UniProtKB/TrEMBL annotation:
Transmembrane regions listed in the UniProt entry: 263-286, 307-330, 336-369, 389-407, 427-451, 472-495, 681-705, 734-758, 778-801
Keywords: Membrane, Transmembrane, Transmembrane helix
Domain of life of the source: Bacteria
Keyword Membrane assigned: yes
Protein's name according to its UniProt entry: ABC transporter permease
Length: 814
């Protein structure tokens, strides 16, 4: 039979609500699959950017280094790179007969990256430390050479700028090292000037070849740069040590991208199945609305499959349009849900392919559901067995138990080592989401049973509640659907936000325990002996800590001003009680350390009198002793300044007072945060999917109210004509919609908080470091969800009452 092909698309316009629902359904489907593709690609680019932020800018391109060669050969090699440097061995340059340790060097444009203290020009640039020690002045000539001093510059010190980062080991001296172990560099303006140096500086030279490039934005660009760079170094044919840090960054970024993709795949599949179920529901509603027309076509000889294609003719264009709009929304909203905005080349085409795939699946579901509906309606009787009789919540609960076993035994799925990325165990990662899904399924089944039994309820003393229950029971199908999606939305948002927030706080707390404070530097024992005073700007935010093998020497008065502690008052009280009794000093035992007297080199005999589970720098093993209990500060292994200030502020204050330091540590850079970021990005997308589900639940609720507008108008208008006050009717609708919202919020919150609370401590990318991840404060999130839910409830109740206020009884009765 010839179907009415031309009339079908126009016929869809007669049901604008069905059109909107069809577009919205595939829009969300398209958004989920496109966002997953874009998120995975941006995760790889973001991981690469993070790894590069921890590298020296001049080390992005593969580089070469060498030493122990003649100076002339080093100069020749340095000239073959874009930014080559040559350094002489450390010697004793003589300017006025007061020789001190120093070395000479040349690096193109080095003089413009130095801070001039005195002079300038194109002669020798002497560091201030050497100029002070050797009494060098502008115009002095280097003994045995024609080179003349034209400038004195401020010594380079950690942390250095990015331009000096790759040369830090050579150009930044260790002021606490032995004489001649390291020194600042006396710079020459031209590489040819190195040939004018005295003979003792012409052997055992050092060379570094750097190739400055723009940092690659994507993994493909990084791989091309790595391959091109290594080929370039091979073509130079130099027998130098090659350093290729970019390869490690690429490998880590690839692993992060793969972990995120594999972790998101099950969630995306479940979302697609839910979306396709929504398409099937829309198709069933379309078939019900077109029942008369479909019956007429069937009587005239149309097969069920033909009637299925009739549904595609009417719903196909909205489904395709919705999928494309989903792709556009995923691209425009990328900054809101993805870790970055840089995408690999061709990612949008991949996302478009996924969108087209789900659109094709949606069209196929439309055909099959419409055909099945026609077959069941016109050819066979409906079977009594239904999928609703299957205890799906028990099946999902069983999967949650399996996931919990995997999670409790394997954590993220691998026995991790420091510096390695976790290979995410998808089954373990899915545990909190499976708990939420099981709770949602159980809640919908209980609600369905309760609504079926609700006709026994007699609450006419509270007419608002009685009417609310009756309306809920009359729309049991849409009500249970809204509850299911609502619980999933609330639970998914809470789980994603909880795990992502826990990873952020875990990285911060672990790095704090690893370093001890926000920033630390090693200083000489002169500060501990009182020969050098601490700068006034560091008082109140900095403390002096001694480090010996397995023990810390702390000042109880100032330690809590700088150290990273979870309970500073308790630690201060505990430390202030430590005393020394003769040859024995009281100490705090940390974690698993032996509870017995112990001898630590450089310290008196330690006797544990109290214990703490963990301590900054020591972790879960070691001892803490008060500084007053140490008789000889010079016998302590090393002394460090711990500060709550950023590293740059700490070092600037020390440099201003001329205090030497070395071995700097910054809390923000001491740990590789990529393993934490990988898990955070994964669950950040989970939270984004939760927001999508929340929008679906809100729209479904509002649409369900709008679909029942005529029914609500009739019942409401008759109720008011029979004497019911408008306030009671308003309360009734608020109770009806508010009960659904409250159930979704309560069940989703409880299920997600409990499951996330059990899973978060085991989702630890660095289990060898304390403390374990902890559930963050979720009250702000809960408050925002309550506010949004209340807003949706008010809008839904207003929509329900709008028809009552504008209803005309004559038209309704007619």
């Amino acid at each position: 039979m010839q179907l009415p092909w031309r009339a079908a698309p126009r016929a869809a316009l007669s049901s604008p609500l069905t059109l909107l629902v069809s577009i919205a359904t595939t829009l969300l489907l398209g958004f989920v699959v496109a966002a997953a593709a874009l998120h995975s690609s941006s995760a790889g680019s973001a991981a690469l950017a993070y790894q590069q932020s921890r590298m020296c800018p001049h080390s992005v391109h593969p580089s070469l280094d060498g030493d122990g060669m003649p100076l002339a050969a080093a100069v020749e090699m340095a000239a073959r790179s874009d930014l080559g440097a040559a350094y002489t061995p450390i010697g004793r340059p003589d300017f006025n007969g007061l020789a001190t340790y120093g070395r000479f060097g040349h690096r193109p444009d080095a003089l413009s990256h130095l801070t001039v203290v005195q002079g300038g020009g194109t002669g020798l640039w002497v560091p201030q430390t050497i100029a002070t020690a050797a009494r060098v002045q502008i115009g002095d000539r280097l003994t045995g050479s024609s080179l003349v001093v034209t400038a004195i510059y401020a010594d380079l010190a950690q942390p250095v700028s990015g331009w000096w980062c790759s040369e830090a080991k050579t150009v930044v001296p260790n002021p606490l090292g032995g004489d001649g172990a390291s020194t600042s560099v006396i710079w020459v303006a031209s590489s040819s000037d190195l040939a004018l140096l005295p003979p003792e500086f012409t052997g055992y030279a050092t060379v570094s070849l750097r190739f400055p490039v723009e940092p690659p934005a994507t993994l493909a660009e990084a791989e091309a740069l790595r391959d091109k760079g290594n080929a370039r170094l091979t073509s130079l044919g130099l027998s130098l040590t090659r350093t290729d840090l970019l390869s490690g960054a690429i490998t880590a970024a690839r692993t992060a991208e793969r972990n995120v993709s594999s972790a998101l795949l099950p969630l995306v599949i479940i979302s697609v199945l839910v979306g396709l179920a929504g398409v099937g529901t829309v198709t069933v509603q379309w078939a019900q609305r077109r029942h008369s027309e479909l019956r007429l076509l069937w009587v005239r000889g149309a097969s069920p499959l033909s009637l299925g294609f009739r549904g595609v003719l009417e719903l196909g264009l909205p489904l395709v349009l919705g999928g494309l709009l989903g792709l556009v929304a995923a691209r425009l909203l990328l900054p809101l849900y993805a870790p970055g905005v840089v995408l690999a080349a061709g990612t949008l085409w991949v996302a478009l392919g996924f969108v087209l795939a789900v659109v094709v699946l949606s069209l196929a579901v439309t055909v099959l559901v419409a055909a099945w509906r026609a077959h069941r309606t016109f050819q066979t009787q409906a079977r009594t067995r239904r999928l609703s009789l299957v205890p799906w919540e028990l099946v999902v609960a069983g999967l949650a138990v399996v996931a919990w076993v995997r999670l409790s035994h394997n954590g993220l799925g691998t026995a991790l080592k420091p510096g390695s990325l976790p290979r995410v165990d998808v089954a373990a990662l899915a545990f909190p989401l499976l708990v939420v899904l099981a709770a949602a399924l159980l809640a919908t089944r209980l609600l369905r049973w309760s609504l079926a039994w609700s006709h026994h309820v007699r609450w006419w003393r509270v007419p608002a509640a009685q009417l609310a229950v009756r309306r809920l029971a009359a729309a049991a199908g849409p009500v249970t659907g809204v509850l299911l999606v609502g619980v999933l939305a609330v639970g998914t948002i809470a789980v994603g936000s909880a795990v992502a927030g826990a990873q952020q706080s875990a990285l911060d707390s672990k790095s704090g325990v690893f370093v001890g404070a926000n920033s630390t530097v090693q200083v000489s024992q002169d500060i501990a002996l009182g020969r050098v005073a601490l700068p006034s700007s560091l008082r109140g935010n900095t403390t002096l800590v001694g480090v010996s093998t397995g023990a810390l020497v702390v000042d109880p008065v100032t330690f809590t001003d700088a150290a990273v502690l979870s309970d500073a008052p308790a630690v201060r009280s505990l430390l202030s009680g430590l005393r020394r009794d003769g040859e024995m000093a009281q100490a705090v035992r940390i974690g698993r350390s032996a509870n017995q007297e112990i001898r630590v080199p450089g310290l008196p005999l330690l006797k544990p009198v109290a214990s703490l589970p963990s301590f900054p720098k020591l972790g879960t093993r070691g001892y803490v002793v008060a500084r007053d209990s140490v008789p000889a500060a010079e016998q302590v292994g090393s002394w460090h300044l711990w500060s709550s200030l950023p590293l740059s502020a700490l070092t600037s204050a020390l440099q201003a007072e001329g205090i030497h330091y070395t071995n700097v540590a910054d809390r923000g850079r001491v740990l590789d945060g990529l393993p934490f970021l990988t898990v955070e990005w994964t669950f950040g997308f989970v939270a984004a999917i939760g927001v999508v589900l929340a929008v679906v639940a809100a729209v479904a609720l509002l649409l369900a109210v709008e679909v029942r507008r005529r029914q609500n108008a009739v019942s409401g208008a008759l109720s008011t004509r029979m004497g019911m006050r408008p306030s009671v009717l308003w309360s009734s609708h608020l109770l009806e919609v508010g009960a659904l919202a409250l159930l979704a919020l309560g069940i989703g919150s409880v299920a997600s908080f409990m499951s996330a609370g059990a899973a978060v401590p085991r989702l630890d990318p660095a289990p060898w470091l304390n403390p374990a991840p902890m559930l963050p404060d979720l009250l702000p999130l809960l408050g925002s969800m309550v506010t949004c839910g209340a807003l949706v409830v008010v809008v839904a109740a207003w929509l329900a009452l709008r028809g009552v206020r504008t209803a005309r009884m004559g038209e309704l009765l007619r």
